[in-house]
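Step 1: inspect the first sequence and its tokens.
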Amino acid sequence: MRRRWNKPVAILATLAMAGSLLAGCGSSKETTSGESAAAPAETTAEAGGEEAAAPVEAEEVSYPLAEGGSLTYWLQLNPNVSANFTNLGDTELGKSWIANTGVDIEFQHPASGQESEQFNLIVADGNFPDIMEWQWVNNYPGGPEKAIDDGVIIALNDVIDQYCPNLKKYLAENPDIDRMIKTDEGHYFAFPFIRGEKGLCYTVGGFIRQDWLDQVGMEVPTTVDEWHTVLTAFKDELGATAPLCFDWSNFGKSNPIAFAYGVGTSSSNFILDENGEVKFYAAQDGYKDYLMTLNQWYNEGLIDRDLATLNGDQVTSKMTTDQAGASVGWAASRMQVMMTTAQAENPDYLLVPTPTPTLNAGETPIYGYIENQFPDVGAAITTSCENVELAAKFLDYGYTEEGHNLFNFGTEGVSYNWDGDYAVYTEEITANPEGWPIAQALGKYIRANYNGPFVQDINYLQEYLQLPTAKECPDVWAVETASDHTMPPVTPTQDESSELATIQNELKTYVDEMTLKFVFGTESFDNWDTYIQTLNDLGLARAIEIEEAALERYNAR
């Protein structure tokens, strides 16, 4: 945004190799005081044990690049784009990205639903595109360091030093982010997608029909008991057949009730307890209490009977046809879509966000949904790239002021206009002449509503959330201490990776099966000790040991 985003300049400070904050979205856990946020960046020579050259200052770069050139770029085509385009290069975003950088890009996309399969085929073939965008931490066996060792992608330390003044500056100013996008060995591996502010990390939460609350004379629930009372009223007084309705596959472990019991998790199966120790979410005492609550609600008809098999479209249907009164999901693609749909028939229909509940009135939530500022999406330069300098400068564009505005807002005068320092989407987005939903309209012009090599701006979210109560979601869903209990993007060693994956797969299969049995009452809670013993027999202690070691290495980055 204007005056909030620094223009590209030559950078005097070098990248931090050890940040001062425990990452996690807005974490406040400090390491030793006095750690420098601008320590010299490790070079490739240093990583290999050779004598390191003096750090190189990144040269100033002007766009479009005078030298030009062409590159191949492999990435998944987001559904917001693929609904109307077969290639990112056909969108206004793609055309502007190419024109503004002066680099001719051949975008390559895997078939929808076959992304992992086609990625693996490319890796096995060894003939890589110049740039590959992927989830390198979680979806490459052994993590990004293994991808470097396997000769798939290159370490970017020297590349960023020499050719990327904008990303280099951002990382030097944000040591917590800097720590997230390097390996334990100190190698930068990708040009990252970064959520620029903590408010962008509160993406999921509960919401409830305010018009129904008004009818039963109740307030928005703030405790688990109040939730029970409200859902009962929706069932008994308003005839709701599924008072609480959400798709378990997406939100079984990330819904507000789970967080009330201290066992919710945003992504990883491991959480940090109040002492900062690594715990497996489904082995905690609170998990049993959580499932006992759901079992009670299920037996009382307060939760959708189809909980195990519901998908998002079915949830939306029930929420917009008076079958359900409360749900869990994303502010824009669920809550806002439901309101827009329902209000066409019922102008009084109103959804409002619900805060993370507590067990007792007056308590402050400790655990809550929050995502990492680096959600493990990054564009890496492969070993097949013959013009690394061009690829680096092309990708660094996303961290310039112009690139920032393009990726977040699109084309000035077409998809947005400035109101002072605030970008306002035009009717091309908010009342699209093609009749496209706002998410698809945005997909033509920006990448902020999914990801890419840039820093996401909260101004985008404030404009994307069109309805007043939807705009309230990030503030209502925020739990200040949530990041203290969320695992940062740690990486096991190459040797540990396959072992951990095997254990985690077995744990997940067993937990998924037993959780629903406990909820539906087909498994007695008298067998809880047997459940815990089975988790231990499947290698839980070893998995925690690996995660603890990875966290220790992460904190030492």
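Step 2: inspect the second sequence and its tokens, then contrast the two.
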Amino acid sequence: MATGVYKTTKKDGSVYYRVSITYKNKHISIGSYDDEFGASAAYAIANDILYKPGTYYIDKDMHTTSYNHIAAELSNNASLKSSSISDGTSVDFFTFFPYAKFISLINFRDNGIYIKTPIYLCDKSFLYFLNSENILTFSTDDLFYYSHHTILCRGGYYFVNDYGMQTSILSRFGIRNHSVKGRDYIFRNGDEHDYRYENVCVINKYNGVNKIEKNGRTFFQSRIHINGNYIIGIYKSENEAAIAYNKVVDILENIQSVSYIKNYIEDMSYITYASIYNSIKISKKLTEYIEGLKQKRPES
């Protein structure tokens, strides 16, 4: 049996081969393969990645890897359809070696820390390689979280599976699922792949609240959707606008079956919240519309 390859049997009696490698006293699982040839090739590639930094590398400044270079060579030269590896075996690099493991091994080799997810550590930040064309940048504050959560992408929507739920990576900034980029949040440097905290700016953090400019001054408009959008009011502070939204939601709860998500106001005492809630004004137009809904509601 080849080095690093272990033959084992499934419950149904079929045979497969597990591959692992030891580097810097750490035992690392590479994966499982249906045949010994594939398993042996995977081990040889892993060994080359760990000991041939000139061939297998990550350019943290350009956000590229040698994986891309190998792909270009393969596409331009039919004779290079398989890569020659250290044990003399000729094998298709992409078929036998997972991209995420490629990143993890190089990070371990270069930075001395093994991380199961495809992360490469940089100074005060890290790169997360979803694939060779899609690389995200994060602050080191998020390293522990993304070391234990795999990022998935569907239609430009980035999320993780957290306790069985799909959670947007934007939620870590307090950005809601229905928030609109450019209106509710922006990327300061224009790079939509840069998720460092200093680059993601939250403009509107509460449901139904938008920041507006009026006569050179900043105000906060609160509105709600009830068979169309209705303005609740325009307020001096974001908290007031958020509380006004909550007040209308409370009124509507007994009128219609639509479920609204109320705002949670951080760092505000119950007494302060209640004082603002009781004194906050709602637009006359919306108040009259709600009264009309009450009259149309069938008596129970």
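Step 3: confirm your contrast with the notes below.
Helices lie at 36-51, 66-76, 93-96, 99-111, 143-147, 238-253, 270-279, 284-296. The chain has a mean pLDDT of 90.
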